[in-house]
Amino acid sequence: MIKKNLINILILLFFLSGCSYSPIFSNKNSNFSIYELSASGNNKLNKIISSRLNNYKGSDSAKKYSITIETNLNKEISSKDSKGNPKSYRINILSNILVKDLNGNIKNKSFSKSVDYNNRSDKSDLKKYENETSKNLADKISDEIIIYLQSI
Question: Which of 11, 14, 45, 79 is most buried, judging by how many CB atoms fall within 10 Å of its CB?
């Protein structure tokens, strides 16, 4: 039995190592690079987005961009119970980017992500959940920004 599992694992490793897997957001094969990156607005979210975009700084590419990011986080009550207490919330993250190439061409694009979630009795758990959710939304926005930059 152990011999059979070992053989199956070796065969699986053989096939996985033979495929040409490469990450989608790998900067090795990107068709753009960033020579200047500035951000304003929500500092925590900008750090998350900027850290992902910093991987594309300084790489050699024909397309070089200067990027300005403005990110805002909005938390609002989406529904209340019969007593008027918050029942669910909505977090909305809006990122506006200004992309400028070496020729002076300027493009604006907005990216928005939102999520609804229920209130929790433990406020520290609620805060942890909000922080984790906003981080995940910022990661998704940074992925969309990278895809956008690869497409222009």
Answer: 45
Contact of 69 with 40, CB cutoff 8 Å? yes
Q: Which helix (H) or strand (E) holds 152?
A: none
> Alpha-carbon distance 137 to 128, whole Å?
14
The domains of the chain are located at: 29-151
Amino acid at the residue 38: S
Rounded to an integer, the average pLDDT of 100-123 is 91
* pTM confidence score: 0.76
Q: Which residue has the tokens 């495929």?
A: 19
Question: Domain spanning 29-151: which CATH class is it, in words?
Answer: alpha beta
Which of the four pLDDT bands, split at 50, 70 and 90, describes residue 109?
very high
Question: H/E element holding 65?
Answer: strand 63-80
- Tokens 């599992």: give the residue: 5
Classify residue 1 by burial, with Cβ atoms within 10 Å: 0-12, 13-18, 19+.
Answer: exposed
Question: Alpha helix (H) ranges present in the chain?
Answer: 2-18, 43-53, 123-151
3-state secondary structure of 54: helix
Q: In the predicted model, is pLDDT for residue 82 greater than 60? A: yes
Residue 93 to residue 72: CA distance in whole angstroms: 6
